[in-house]
Amino acid sequence: MQNSEALALSAALLAAAGELTRRINDGVVARGFEGRPSYGFAFTRLAPDGATVSELGAHLGVTKQAASQLVDELVRKGYVERRPHPVDARARLIVLTEHGWECTRAAEEAAAEAVRAWADVLGEGEVRALSDRLARIAPNGPIRPVW
Q1: pLDDT 10s digits, 48-68
Q2: Cis before residue 48, ω within 30 degrees of 0?
Q3: pTM, rounded to two decimals
Q4: Spatial separation of the C-alpha atoms in residues 21 and 88, rounded to whole Å
Q5: Residue 67's closest CA among 89, 30, 37, 38?
Q6: Nearest to 79 by CA among 102, 49, 56, 59
Q7: 96 pairs with which residues across the strands?
Q8: Is the pLDDT of residue 142 over 90?
Q9: Which tens digit of pLDDT belongs to each residue from 94-118?
């Protein structure tokens, strides 16, 4: 693959990721939830069992202070709550509230709509093939923004 082809592929993947992020966030907002894309990136780490602020910061690629500010915002909006950590008495576990889980389900619905639009263009088989190939390239990478 030539450099120009690699750059074009990189640009297409980044554009698709950006558009997908926008469509999911717009879908969440349209379903009555207040939020920003960073909330969804945080929720992917907090579901299903919660995380500490330090773990969330590492997942998002931000400082502990920035993660703490995000958690404060999510607590104020009712999406998460702080609980005693089951193992470490010094730490607090950040977990999704029922409102946070409802928001997560809204994001899943919005993501499904976005992917259905891809299937309208590419066909179901091509979308499945794309999914399989992307899973081979980035099987377990954190789902986070590139700040």
Answers
A1: 899 999 999 999 999 999 999
A2: yes
A3: 0.87
A4: 34
A5: 38
A6: 102
A7: 80
A8: no
A9: 999 999 999 999 999 999 999 999 9
Q: For position 146, what pLDDT does the model report?
A: 64
Q: Which two tokens stand for residue 81?
A: 């709550």
The type of residue at 76 is R
What is the distance in angstroms between the CA of the first residue and the CA of the last residue of the chain? 28
CA atoms within 13 A on the CB side of 98: 0
**Paired tokens of 95:** 């977990």
Tokens 């640009």 -> residue:
11
Q: Which one, of 28, 30, 117, 114, lies nearest residue 79 by Cα?
A: 28
| Residue found by looking up tokens 């619905």 in the block | 109
Which of the pair, 54 or 143, is modelled with greater confidence? 54
Structural tokens at position 123: 């066909």
